[in-house]
């Protein structure tokens, strides 16, 4: 038999089978067809050892996109670029990166705990009747997972949980992060694009690593917080002189963990109820920031001193007192108790996976109840620039890891208090060529000037103390006579 005859014979067989199948579909009773199909599937199951699970894009009446489908799409996006030959590329809303997905009828393999399985994408096209000349097509996309039936328990539980969890994590990492601020009891936002990272942060490397490890440990500790019965949140108190990098560290924390930022302005909050409403509306994986907490409201000082202050004000004239009460009524009525409940009360557990960060220039002004462990769990002092922090700045700004002037700068930094912001300003290139030596010489001059100013100030203070001591001695001699 020649190849031509073979193809003719094969075509005849296929045409005959199609004719028989068409007759079967057309003339066999529905009950009989259903009976045959049901038992044919059972027979196929005896010889076909694989199980298939289908995940449709839309649930119900196509009103909502399936969260499982979205998570699978994100999970597979990391595998499709290396395996699939046909890809779809798109920028999803509120995403800052290109998302790749499998094209229709593509298949990729995956492996979990030594078990191999396969993901395939597909779509069903259903033509619906329409009054126009062109029929309307309804596309229903889906993913199909195929695996051997002996791995059923492993796939249905641990593997699918892993896929959904990882898919949601990828979505969080790829999303366009936001910076929120409050206007009364409502949040408004802009896109968060601050470039600060821990690599560019001027800080002692050992202390920096300690903070990074603490943040990463927190972000992966969901099971631990659940087991010990605590809300999944952590408080950070950043304190130190102005210009030491408190706000920059907050931006670096957000970039490290891929969290949104909520910059809470307490003076714009009417009362404790509004404060609670703002807390409820914050999302998971976020950092809630109250900067300069000692200046936000009159609620952070020692309560005893507050009481004494109130008693002293009661002795004033009634008219100024009435005016002050009217002013206070128009302002914020947030109390220390309300703020404490905001940090670690019952409502603080809403949302989960959040950091609460306070910053202050004067930590001694804060009420101990506000910064105790359990509320502000980690206290981080951001102090003046020392040599290790300077080396980080020199590397970032001038691409220098060593220089002949470093030894002189090191000695001056040990003797002089200067903020990282001031050091960074002197390391900024002042010419197009960006001469590093010129910048370092300018920093040395600034350090020597500050050192001299500090010496003169100390000398002036010493003279004042000596003068005061002399006057006190004269007064005592006079009283003795």
TrEMBL record:
Residues 232-386 form the AAA+ ATPase domain. The keyword Ribosomal protein does not apply. Keywords: ATP-binding, Hydrolase, Magnesium, Membrane, Nucleotide-binding, Transmembrane, Transmembrane helix. Pfam families: AAA, AAA_assoc, AAA_lid_At3g28540. Its cofactor is Mg(2+). InterPro entries: AAA+_ATPase, AAA_N_dom, At3g28540-like_C, ATPase_AAA_core, ATPase_AAA_CS, Mitochondrial_chaperone_BCS1, P-loop_NTPase. PROSITE patterns: AAA (PS00674). CDD domains: RecA-like_BCS1. It catalyses: ATP + H2O = ADP + phosphate + H(+). GO terms for biological process: response to stress. One of its GO terms (molecular function) is ATP hydrolysis activity. Residues 316-329 have a biased composition (Basic and acidic residues). This is AAA+ ATPase domain-containing protein. It comes from Juglans regia (English walnut).
